[in-house]
Write a structure and sequence with these properties.
- This protein is α/β, with parallel strands linked by helices.
- The chain folds into two domains: 2-204, NAD(P)-binding Rossmann-like Domain (Rossmann fold); 213-417, Rossmann fold (3-Layer(aba) Sandwich), CATH 3.40.50.720.
- Helix content is 43%, strand content 13%.
- The chain has helices spanning 10-21, 33-40, 51-60, 97-109, 130-143, 147-150, 165-170, 186-191, 204-208, 210-235, 239-247, 270-283, 289-310, 337-347, 366-375, 379-382, 386-391; strands spanning 2-6, 25-29, 64-67, 79-82, 118-122, 151-155, 175-179, 199-203, 318-322, 351-355, 396-399, 414-417.
- It has a six-stranded parallel beta sheet, sandwiched between helices. The chain has a four-stranded parallel beta sheet with strand order 10-9-11-12, with helices on one face. The protein has a two-stranded parallel ribbon with strand order 7-8.
- Helix 1 packs across helix 3 (51-60) and helix 10 crosses helix 12.
């Protein structure tokens, strides 16, 4: 197949590499010229295991190309996958500007000479009803009565985790396809032909709400575990032992994932989608007190972790923060609780060094770049290399993930692990 991917962020770029590795021809579209130039040169714009080799192979074989404008690239395409961002607006709703804009671009680029409809699969997360109330009206306005002959819209949420995105693409927990009539789509069946996973064919709205349900549940688990962890800290109880006992019950407690008392939830999905679900609930008059408490609980946990991290130290003490990205093995700083922690430490007057081998200030791009420097303007000066981290005397090392385990720290420096409370 020939596949166009609109938006080459984590989701879109990973999909491009994986789809091309199966022998399909991929054209990626992104407004960032630097990103497009890097991709065409075989340089990955993100840090993610396995994508570098897949990109080089795809470019060398002519299966991966990239451009900043859609132009006539849809000609001959069987499928267009939309992966543009839906960031939080001021009221917590998803900002749908990119979705509307790219939909208009696709409609304008569709050739009247097509002999079959172009399947347009949306993977961006947005509220239920968006396909029917925003996407389809845009296509109808542009294409008129010929809309069904020119385009077939499906909603196909992704379930990729940064740091294991390639494995998650080929081994997802499930495949969800939302269609207008709740029936399978032949092109999507071809796309997923080599993937062994449960497949759910639903209407648009059922598919659209999937990520809200999943990500809000993950957020619920993190917040619940961290509330237990805070209580344990206050009572002098071992949160580690409590966690061990709790997750041993796989019959009733379901799963250990996201349930370990430790770091606050963050990243580009969970906070954004919880806020959006809150907005949806308010907009529809639905009372969701647990969901409404998640962000507040998470913010309270961030502050408690700050207190735990610096407790007993006087302002002016030198601290090493080991791990800045929201997850080890990635450079994504968007809504990372560790960025908030660093900001709090600086505001409190501590001398801070940051060691994260996955973060290179010079390689940050797009929303990741904007968020990083809006929260930590001195990021480039704060980051230190491994030699500096190992050779400096610190009053305390704050470990947010396994990054600290890679260091050979000098002396008897105290290490406080925020990823796993004691």
């Amino acid at each position: 197949m020939k596949v166009a991917i609109l938006g080459l962020g984590y989701v879109g770029f990973t999909a491009a590499c994986c789809i091309a590795s199966e022998g399909h021809e991929v054209i990626g579209i992104d407004v960032n010229p630097n990103k497009v130039r890097d991709i065409m040169s075989g340089r990955s714009p993100i840090i993610e295991p396995r994508v570098d080799e897949m990109l080089r192979d795809g470019v060398a074989a002519g299966r991966i190309k990239a451009d900043t404008a859609l132009g006539s690239h849809l000609d001959g395409c069987d499928l267009a996958i939309v992966c543009v961002g839906t960031p939080s607006a001021a009221d917590g709703a998803h900002n749908m500007g990119f979705i509307a804009d790219v939909t208009q671009q696709i409609a304008a680029a569709l050739s009247a000479e097509r002999d079959r409809p172009l399947v347009v699969a949306y993977r961006s997360t947005f509220r239920p009803g968006t396909v029917e109330e925003l996407v389809l009206p845009i296509f109808r306005a542009a294409l008129g009565e010929a809309v069904e002959d020119r385009v077939e819209v499906v909603y196909n949420p992704e379930f990729l985790r940064e740091g294991s995105a390639v494995d998650d693409y080929f081994q997802p927990p499930k495949i969800v396809i939302g269609t207008g009539d709740g029936q399978p789509c032949a092109v999507m069946n071809m796309l997923h032909a080599n993937i062994d996973a449960p497949v759910f064919i639903t209407g648009y709205r059922e598919a659209e709400i999937t990520k809200f349900v999943d990500n809000s549940w993950h957020a619920v688990k993190v917040a619940f575990a961290n509330e237990v962890g805070r209580a344990c800290l206050a009572l002098g109880v071992s949160a580690r032992q409590v966690h061990e006992v709790f997750v041993a019950d796989t019959k009733l407690n379901i799963s250990p994932y996201y349930m370990r008392p430790g770091g606050a939830f963050g990243g580009s999905c969970l906070p954004k989608d919880v806020r959006a679900l809150q907005h949806i609930a308010a907009d529809t008059g639905t009372n969701l007190p647990l969901i409404n408490s998640l962000i507040r609980s998470n913010e309270a946990h961030k502050h408690r972790l700050f207190e735990y991290a610096v407790g007993g130290l006087e302002p002016g003490a030198r601290i090493l923060l080991a791990g800045l990205a929201f997850k080890v093995g990635t450079d994504d700083l968007r809504e990372s609780p560790n960025v908030d922690l660093a900001r709090k430490m600086l505001a409190a007057g501590f001398k801070l060094d940051i060691y994260d081998p996955g973060v290179d200030a010079a390689k940050l791009i797009g929303a990741n770049l904007g968020y990083a420097y809006s929260q930590l303007p001195a990021l480039k000066q704060l980051l230190v290399d491994k030699a500096h981290a190992e050779g400096t005397a610190y009053a305390r090392v704050i470990a947010t993930n396994a990054t600290a385990d890679t260091l050979e720290l000098s002396g008897t420096v105290e290490v406080r692990n925020l990823g796993r409370l004691p």
